[in-house]
Amino acid sequence: MFKKSALLVGMMFVPFATSAAEVPITGTVESRCIIQTDSAGTFGNPNAYTLTTKPADGGEPAIVRYDITLADSYYAEITPPTAFSSAPALPDVVTWVGSVEVSTVSDATGMGTYETDKVELGDTDRYDMTATGSTWFKISSTATMGGEKAFAGGTYTAVAEAVCIAK
Amino acid sequence: MKMLKYFIVGIMLALPVQAHEMVPTYPRLEISHMDGLLKATMKMFNKRADVEYYEVGVFDKDLNPIPFVTAYNVFKLEYLGHVTFDIYIRASDRYRAVYVCSRSKIRKDGNTKTAIASKICSKFRND
């Protein structure tokens, strides 16, 4: 009687034993630089001849975030817009003023000097990404039409470039 | 004050973001199955919902373009899509080729705004 019960209990476990299978999920972690666009930015139009990303004038600066997983291996090079990529016909020459600045860092100790140590290469600002973690950069831009002529009605788009270059 | 900073960083990390990434950071050029050509394999991940196309290029140390071959110089990569692609360069360009870069292609649309073109450059290993 005992033998029969033991056999029955044993058989009950067989399906569980045979159906169990391992499903491995594998992944590789590689050092990398990731560029994240938190905000693409918007132009405000405070007067007829100015387009600007200044919040006080109805604009919004672009925000990009760099995630770095390998210290001292990358440069961040950021260039504010220097021309419109699409626009209606322009009646005069447009003057561009742009700036880039570090807005937030995830490691104040390792990244605290990013802004003061940046190198300006023409319109481009180069940052030496010496620490791991995240850095947010704010890109501001103002376009002014020559002779205070009015921007024609229509859609204007200007492209800022965010580059991450391996050292 | 420190807690507030961590809180702000935490909130910003939690916000939806648009990301562009390419690995490896230091690809190795290897001998390919074709005479006189070297090959490197790259992987890309598109987490930018606003970008569907990426352009690949190979450059020297001054970012001047160098001839290369890949399946498509400009390729479509859907949002959250992965792609693995091979880059072929001439063996004679082995030491001239320094960077392989991918750049997002921005689409024209109907808003008055700025747009971000993201570009990631990996550096060929020289060992």
Account of the protein in words:
The complex is a heterodimer of chains A (167) and B (127). Chain A has 167 residues and is α+β, with helices and mostly antiparallel strands. Chain A has a single domain, classed as Immunoglobulin-like (Sandwich), CATH 2.60.40. Chain A contains three helices and eleven strands, in the order αβββββββααββββ. In chain A, 34% of the residues are buried. Chain B is mainly β and 127 residues long. Chain B has a single domain (17-123), classed as Immunoglobulins (Immunoglobulin-like, Sandwich). The N and C termini of chain B lie far apart (47 Å). Residues 7-15 of chain B have low confidence and may be disordered. Chains A and B meet through strand 1, strand 4, strand 10 and strand 11 of A and helix 1, strand 1 and strand 8 of B.
What is the compact description of this entry?
In chain A, about 15% of the residues lie in helices and about 45% in strands. With about 170 residues, chain A is α+β, with helices and mostly antiparallel strands. The radius of gyration of chain B is 18 Å and the shape is elongated.
Question: Which fold name is given in CATH as the topology of chain B?
Answer: Immunoglobulin-like
Helical coverage of chain B, percent range: 10-25%
Helix/strand order of chain A? HEEEEEEEHHEEEE
Number of helices of chain B: 1
Give the biggest beta sheet of chain A.
6 strands, antiparallel
β-strand number of chain B: 8
Terminal-residue CA separation of chain B = 47 Å
What does the overall shape of chain A look like? elongated
**How many beta-strand runs of chain A?**
11
Descriptive terms for the model:
heterodimer, A: 167 residues, alpha+beta, Immunoglobulin-like, 6-stranded antiparallel sheet, 5-stranded antiparallel sheet, 3 helices, 11 strands, elongated, B: 127 residues, mainly beta, 4-stranded antiparallel sheet, 1 helix, 44% strand
